[in-house]
Design a protein that fits this description.
Elements (H helix, E strand, L loop, with lengths): L19 H19 L6 H8 L3 H7 L3 H21 L16 H22 L3 H10 L6 H5 L4 H16 L12 H14 L1 H7 L4 H4 L3 H16 L13
C-alpha cells in the first residue's frame, strides 16, 4: 500500500498572509472608524494594528507609512462620497445643453437630491459626520488640505450660479449669499447627524424626538433650505390664529 508523500514542512518565518484585498479593506475601514472616533492626530499605526488583531508590521505591509494610510482613507473612503453627493449638479457640456427654463425648480430638485445623498451616505457610513466635522471642517483638522483638493469646485460654482440666477429673477430671499448655500446644506445635514447623542440627551423626555431618524433629518434640512432660500411666489395662506 503506497502512502502519500509527506507534506513539505513550511519554512519558518512570517505566517501566511490573509487575502490581501480583504485585509487591506479591513485596515482602511478600521482606520477610518478610529479617525472619526478619536481623531487622526491621536491615531497611530499601532492602534490600527491592535484593532485589527495584527502586528504593526502587517499594517506597514499594506501601507508603507502613516501618511500613505491617511491618503488612502481620503482617496478610497471620502472622495467617492464627495463625488456621489455632488454628481447631480451638471457642469460638462454633455450634461446640460442649455440653462434650465425654471432655475428655481431646478435648484429645489438639486437640494432635495443632494440632501438625500448626504443622509444616505452617512447612514451607510456612520463614521462620516464625525470625521467630516472633526477633521475637515474643524480648523486644524488633519484631513482638511487633503480633502479640499478633491472638492468639485466646478459643480459647486455651477450650483452657486443657478442660485444667483434665481436671485436675479427675484425668486431668492434677499440676503441669501449663493456661494454659501452649499455650506448651509452640509451644516443642516452633517451637524444633526454628528451630534445625535447630544440632542437626544437634550430631548430625552420627548419620545417624538427620540424617534427622529435620518429621513426626518433629511426632510428638516430640505424644508429649512427651500423655505429659507425662496421668496414666496404668492401671499401665504391666511393664518390659523398663530
Amino acid at each position: 500500500m503506497n502512502s502519500a508523500p509527506p507534506a513539505t514542512p513550511r519554512r519558518p518565518g512570517r505566517p501566511p498572509r490573509p487575502d490581501s484585498a480583504a485585509m487591506r479593506a479591513r485596515l482602511l475601514d478600521l482606520a477610518t472608524q478610529r479617525f472619526a472616533a478619536s481623531g487622526v492626530a491621536a491615531t497611530t499605526i499601532a492602534h490600527i494594528a491592535q484593532l485589527a488583531g495584527v502586528t504593526p508590521a502587517m499594517v506597514h505591509y499594506y501601507f508603507k507609512s502613516r501618511d500613505q494610510l491617511i491618503d488612502a482613507v481620503v482617496q478610497e473612503r471620502l472622495v467617492p462620497v464627495i463625488a456621489y453627493v455632488w454628481a447631480p449638479v451638471p457642469v460638462a457640456a454633455g450634461e446640460a445643453q442649455e440653462p434650465p427654463a425654471d432655475p428655481a425648480a431646478t435648484v429645489r430638485a438639486f437640494i432635495a437630491e443632494i440632501v438625500g445623498r448626504v443622509v444616505r451616505s452617512a447612514a451607510e457610513r456612520p463614521w462620516l459626520p464625525a470625521l467630516w466635522l472633526h477633521e475637515v471642517v474643524n480648523e486644524g483638522g488633519q484631513l482638511r488640505e487633503r480633502v479640499l483638493r478633491h472638492l468639485p469646485a466646478d459643480r459647486l460654482h455651477a450650483f452657486a450660479a443657478l442660485i444667483a440666477d434665481c436671485h436675479r429673477q427675484g425668486a431668492i430671499t434677499p440676503g441669501v449669499e449663493p456661494r454659501l448655500v452649499f455650506l448651509s446644506l452640509l451644516g443642516l445635514t452633517l451637524l444633526p447627524l454628528a451630534t445625535s447623542s447630544l440632542w437626544r440627551r437634550v430631548w430625552q423626555g420627548d419620545p417624538q424626538a427620540q424617534a427622529l431618524d435620518t429621513e426626518a433629518i433629511a426632510a428638516h434640512a430640505i424644508a429649512m433650505l427651500t423655505g429659507g432660500l425662496f421668496s414666496p411666489a404668492a401671499p401665504s395662506q391666511a393664518s390659523t390664529g398663530c
